[in-house]
Amino acid sequence: MKKLTLVALTAFAAISSFTAEAKDGQFHFRGQITTAPCGVIVPNGGYVQMNEWATSELKQDTATTLQGRSVPFSIQLVDCDTSVTTKTVTTTFTGPLAGINGAFAVSSLGNDSQFGGDNRQAGQPATATGVGLKLFNADNTALNAGAASTAVTFTPQTTLSFQAAYVYTGASASAATAGYADSDVDFTLNYL
């Protein structure tokens, strides 16, 4: 009987040694719980790649409708509770301003891991001057900083679409100088 017990204990010890836990990595979960009727997904982690623009492409910051080149971006509303009384939403964008005509200020943030790391080039000015970032509604009307967007009726899955364009903020596009034109813009959803 002692021999059988010893064999059983040896087998148990051998099995136990193979089930030891090892820490091989870690996940970081981040989120927020709200009382809003919709969940929110911001595609690409909120990064919008504007690429390079020539100063000749810049339109005046007083434009009330989209003219020329732009870059689309969106906010996705998911799992919306359509049983709520209010089924419309507007979006308000806020951030540092470039002048008085509703465009956002630009700077040289430069180190963007989302777009391949530090993309600044030697000899180029750190920040473009005389330039701002202007946003537009899906219908191409200007969406000035701090103003509510066009109201959208939401369904269980709704995409809020917008456009972004660089604009000149000085007397003319030729007065704008080359450089980086990065901008961080916050948004707030307003359920009406």
Automatic annotation (TrEMBL):
Family: Belongs to the fimbrial protein family.
Broad class of the protein's primary localization: other
Residues covered by the Fimbrial-type adhesion domain: 28-191
Keywords: Fimbrium, Signal
UniProt record, GO biological process: cell adhesion involved in single-species biofilm formation
Signal peptide: 1-22
Gene Ontology terms: cellular component: pilus
Gene3D superfamilies with a match to the protein in the record: Fimbrial-type adhesion domain
Lineage per the UniProt record: Bacteria, Pseudomonadati, Pseudomonadota, Gammaproteobacteria, Enterobacterales
Cellular compartments annotated: Fimbrium
Protein name in UniProt: Fimbrial protein
Domain of life: Bacteria
Organism: Atlantibacter subterraneus
Pfam families associated with the record: Fimbrial
